[in-house]
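In practice, a research group might receive sequence data for several interacting partners and want a quick structural hypothesis before committing to experiments. The following worked case mirrors that situation: the sequences arrive first, and a predicted assembly follows.
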Amino acid sequence: MLSREFYERPTLDVARDLLGKVFVRRIDNISLKGRIVEVEAYIGEDDPACHARFGQTNRNRVMYGRGGVAYIYFIYGMYDMLNYVTEPEGNAAAVLIRGIEPVEGIETMMQLRNCDNIANLTNGPGKICQAFSLDTSHSGTDLTGGEMLVTEGDDSGFEIATSSRIGIKNGTDRQWRFYIKGNAFVSRL
DNA sequence: GTCCTGATGTGCT
DNA sequence: GCACATCAGGACA
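A structural hypothesis for the assembly, expressed as tokens:
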């Protein structure tokens, strides 16, 4: 599995390097696995789209902690979003997981999402949290522990595309979204 | 396929 | 009060 050192690096490097890696979540004796195909970086109090732009709050507290921890927040009164905290303690930064290609536990994911179309299962940040049964109670979970982790995957043989981040109004000048070119589970073009 | 709307918790400018 | 790192469903075409 990926170590603390992997996450406690500059966020843009972590974001790009996460593409092709495999997210694993264990629920009882079921494993849910998926390959990360789309991410976005949110970096520090100076990033006008980052939750840390107003300083530390209850909601964003774990972003200020050590890297290699899940930051999950609730938005639009309805959806949860999965992020991985990056950089050493004190630097508020994280990578949003926006697109995942299902690998294992697909039947369970479909039940959790009440969805019978694989193409629509995990191609978006809200969908990913439903498919992997994640909510804010999992925020702060260590990704180098056992319940949730990220492993090496097939992270060669694809091209990385870059764009502005999705769904934000400020900070669109920063090209901090990265995705695997041509992958079907990227949330949008 | 496109466009529009409603769902509604959290933190704020 | 209002914006917000979203999504599903309906009205079209």
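Before designing any experiment, note the following. The mean pLDDT of chain A is 96. Chain A is about 15% helix and 30% strand.
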